[in-house]
Amino acid sequence: MKVVTHEWRSMFLKVTRESDGISLAGRVGIADSFWTRFRGLMLRETLPPGEGLMIEGCTSIHMMFMRFPIDALFLDSSNTAVGLYQSLRPWTGISGWHRNASRVLELPAETLHRFSVAVGDRFHLEEVHEDSAQKGC
Question: Is the pLDDT of residue 48 over 90?
Fold first, then answer.
């Protein structure tokens, strides 16, 4: 799914697991330009529950310049989980390389555990606009 992004502005994604309809996040920003991919979540103070960042064209991540732990969910081109990391620590966390990944979803720490996300789960990405994204998951 190619989504035109305007970094944390009016368009977001809602990410739900296809098997049971559980929403992992209702307000996911999209990073698909050089600058938004480079910046990611660096230097942000926090990532509130229900929010996240989808980094397009990403096969691995690092936690340099991060202030808080996150979960990372690597998805292939069909939005099937091909890798996941729980509670990557700021400054020292790093993921492995996932050659089959097309994107990574960065979420607040413990999100993947709370929803029992596993490799092989498939997700639906739905475009939402600012007014509906603010209503939560």
Answer: yes
